[in-house]
């Protein structure tokens, strides 16, 4: 089912969104027949409840969706989407007292709830469609939903069909849709053009490692997005146990998320110069694998001691960040499924991010709240810099001790982002472990909508 609004259908059934505390007063204004039907059906306007109201001939004439109370709503998001899946096939027109950001959130949640991943098997999605509510920017919401669909599809696709070659092809397709320029440096070309750590991480795979570089827009502030594209992560010679390897198709979730965000930016024609950098590799095992104890020299010239080959994401991002910083962008943002430590700290719903820029932080926090894309600020805690300095090389890719894993990873990346670059890093999970309204189980974008909403404040658009 397309993640778009239905045509403005004159025959659309009215769908009333009801707060549980307003239900009785609403019933008092209804015909006795309707009030009896609603009460007899056990509808209490709780979150996720839906009820079709028949007319005198038995055909549906209206529907209700529960909106709960403020306390219940505070425990989740996209509440209308929870009811949408319980409605029958048809077109509905939303009625109620919502407006502003709350209305936009619920309308977007409906679209996001229409997502299904059916590449390999038939999947059943919501049958009900929604007419764009008056007062929302329907084109903007549809562009956001399309970007999120791209992200989810990329993450959900297994590595057998989403290796570095396929990820590059997806980038080429995206660039073609919006007239962006795209280039890729592959295999030994990475060494020739000084991307040694991307090459080292990906050289053991049957598919050559590569750096994908997409640019769009000719005027405005410069925004560079860098996404970790580890299409599958075995852990390398520090092999992951099977229980930890099962979801590693999602280790390119950072790349998928920046691609979804880039699609939103280009579809909305934001007045900026966009650059997307994706180091696309598979961290595989072969006779050519990089090893624990190796010392790699990065594009920036900093040397890195490899103490764990399973801490590979920061290595490929480092070379890409160094390239991005050379162009002196106005803002550079990296996104990666980088550390389990971040997931342990905040769970799968929140997007942890690192930034020392007060303007970025303020815009992100405000934007995240408006669009129901929660973020949580983590510290670039400079005193921990000594934890990533092993002595034998400039940097350690996997400090021992187990403390502050997400912070030390972010500090590692900051070393490559340039001292004068405004830099923000997201350490996301990229996966929804249990189905929720608007967020089916599986791959999910995190932080992209918050960044999109915050861009005017961050870049002065």
Automatic annotation (TrEMBL):
Annotated family: Belongs to the peptidase M17 family.
The protein's name in its UniProt record: Leucyl aminopeptidase family protein
UniProt-listed InterPro entries: Leucine_aapep/pepB (IPR011356), Macro_dom-like (IPR043472), Peptidase_M17_C (IPR000819), Peptidase_M17_N_1 (IPR048816)
One Gene Ontology term of the molecular function aspect: manganese ion binding
Gene Ontology cellular component terms for the protein in this record: cytoplasm
Domain Cytosol aminopeptidase: 308-315
Pfam family, one: Peptidase_M17
A GO biological process held by the record: proteolysis
Organism whose genome encodes this protein: Marimonas arenosa
Keywords: Aminopeptidase, Hydrolase, Manganese, Protease
